[in-house]
Design brief:
Length: 419
C-alpha cells in the first residue's frame, strides 16, 4: 500500500496549484456540468470474421453533443472515459475522429481516458472474436497471434490496430490526440486547468508524462481527474492473455498508480489550503465492480481506494466521485457499510444494479472503510438512448443525501430518447 502524504508541487505561474476560475463560475451562481462516458459505443468491421460495422452511436454523437451545447445552464463537460467499445479496434483514425468531433462542443470539455482506448487494446479472443484488434498469446509457439488485416498473423506489419494493441503505445496515441497542450481543455470556451505534466511532484519527475491528470477549482469546489482504467487497473488481466503479466505491464500499472496517488494528494492539499467546500474526483474505473469475477480482480485498485478514503476523511467535507465503466447508472457510497444504494435496472437480470453486490452494497467488495462524507455516481453508458448527467454544484447548498442530492450537489439523468 502506498503511503499517504502532502506533496510539494512544481507549478507554473500559480501560487496555489489548480486554483483557476472559469468565466461561468465567476458569475457567482451554481455551477452546472454535463457528465457522460462509455460513449459512443460500436463495432469495427472485420471481413475475415464476417463482422460488420456498427456505427449507430457514432453517427448520433453530433446531435448528442448538440443537446449539451443547447443547454444554456451547462458551463463545463466531463467525459469519464471509454470513447469506444470493447469491440472497436484501437485505430489511429478512430481516436482522431473522436477528437475532431469533440471540437464541436461549445463548452470546455475535460476528458479522462478509459480502458477501451488504451489499457484493453491488446484484447482479442480469436479470429472470430477479434475484440479490439490486438491479439493473443499462443502457448504452443510462444508467439503473439495478432488480429491481422487478412486474418491471424504473427507479423506486426499486418496488425489492424495501433501498434498491435500495445497499451503503452495506445496511451501515447491518446495523449497525442487529446492532450497536446497541457493546461488546455477540449471543446470551446475557457477553463483553466492544471496538468500533472507541469505541476508534478519534483521528487518524481517521471510524473510529468501523466498529462491527462488535471485539476481546477470553480465555485469553491476543487475538481481532479486521475487516469484509472476499468477492469483491473491494467494488471490482473495479462496483456494478450499471456500466462502472467509482463514486466512492462507491471511497471505501467505501478508507476501510474503511484502518480495518481500523488496527484490526489496534491488536489486535496490545494482544497484544504483554499478551504474548498467540496472535492470532485473523476476517473473511468468502477473500482468496486467485480463484473462477474472474484474480489481479487479488484485488488490493484486498493492503493487508490485507500488514498481516496484517507484523504476524504481528513478533508472532512463532501467528496463526490464520478465514474463510468460499469455502464449502469448508480448512486451510492461504496466507502460506507450502511449507505443506501439506488440505480437503474440491469436489463440482463431484471434486478436493480445494487443487487450486483452482496447486501446491495459495493462496500462489500473492499470492506475496510467507513467514510461518511463520500458519494459516488456511475453515469449510464454504452447503450441507447444516449444519456448525460446534469450535475449542479452549489457551494452554499447542504442537501441531505438522497438518490439525487448530496451536500452541495444535485443531479438528474438526461436520456435523449431521440438518440
Amino acid at each position: 500500500m502506498l503511503k499517504r502524504g502532502l506533496i510539494p508541487l512544481v507549478a507554473v505561474g500559480l501560487a496555489l496549484p489548480g486554483v483557476s476560475v472559469s468565466t461561468a463560475s465567476a458569475a457567482g451562481g451554481p455551477l452546472t456540468l454535463a457528465v457522460f462516458g462509455d460513449s459512443p459505443y460500436g463495432r469495427s468491421a472485420y471481413a475475415p470474421a464476417g463482422q460488420t460495422a456498427d456505427t449507430a452511436q457514432f453517427q448520433k454523437t453530433p446531435a448528442f453533443i448538440g443537446t449539451i451545447n443547447s443547454d444554456p445552464t451547462i458551463s463545463d463537460v466531463i467525459h469519464v472515459g471509454d470513447i469506444h467499445s470493447g469491440k472497436e479496434f484501437c485505430t489511429e483514425e478512430y481516436g482522431a475522429s473522436i477528437a475532431s468531433m469533440w471540437q464541436t462542443f461549445t463548452k470546455p470539455l475535460v476528458y479522462t481516458p478509459g480502458d477501451n482506448e488504451w489499457a484493453d487494446c491488446h484484447k482479442a479472443s480469436s479470429l472470430n472474436s477479434p475484440g479490439q484488434g490486438g491479439g493473443f498469446y499462443d502457448s504452443a509457439s510462444g508467439a503473439i497471434d495478432y488480429i491481422g488485416t487478412g486474418g491471424l498473423s504473427t507479423d506486426p506489419a499486418d496488425c489492424v490496430s495501433y501498434h498491435c494493441g500495445n497499451p503503452v503505445d495506445n496511451l501515447a496515441k491518446v495523449r497525442q490526440d487529446f492532450f497536446t497542450r497541457p493546461g488546455h481543455t477540449l471543446g470551446d470556451g475557457k477553463l483553466n486547468v492544471v496538468s500533472q505534466a507541469t505541476a508534478y511532484d519534483p521528487g518524481h519527475p517521471a510524473d510529468a508524462q501523466y498529462v491527462e491528470n488535471v485539476r481546477w477549482a470553480q465555485d469553491d469546489i476543487v475538481f481532479v481527474t486521475i487516469n484509472v482504467p476499468g477492469g483491473s487497473n491494467n494488471d490482473t488481466d495479462p496483456w494478450y492473455k499471456m500466462p502472467t503479466p509482463s514486466r512492462a505491464q507491471i511497471d505501467e500499472r505501478t508507476s501510474r498508480t503511484a502518480a495518481d496517488v500523488r496527484w490526489l494528494d496534491a488536489a486535496f492539499a490545494g482544497a484544504r489550503a483554499r478551504h474548498a467546500k467540496a472535492v470532485v474526483i473523476s476517473a473511468q474505473a468502477d473500482m468496486w465492480d467485480v463484473d462477474g469475477k472474484t474480489k481479487d480482480h479488484l485488488a490493484n485498485y486498493e492503493p487508490i481506494i485507500s488514498e481516496v478514503a484517507a484523504q476524504t476523511a481528513e478533508f472532512g467535507r463532501p467528496v463526490l466521485m464520478l465514474n463510468g465503466d460499469s455502464h449502469l447508472y448508480r448512486s451510492d457510497n461504496p466507502l460506507s457499510p450502511t449507505a443506501a444504494c439506488t440505480g437503474e435496472t440491469d436489463p440482463a437480470t431484471g434486478a436493480g444494479v445494487c443487487a450486483h453486490d452482496p447486501g446491495d452494497n459495493a462496500w462489500n467488495e473492499h470492506p475496510y472503510y467507513n467514510v461518511s462524507n463520500f458519494h459516488r455516481i456511475v453515469v449510464h453508458g454504452s447503450t441507447t438512448p444516449l444519456e448525460w448527467l446534469k450535475l449542479t454544484a452549489d457551494p452554499h447548498a447542504n442537501h441531505a443525501t438522497t438518490a439525487t442530492t448530496y451536500g452541495p450537489f444535485s443531479w438528474q439523468r438526461m436520456p435523449q430518447p431521440q438518440l
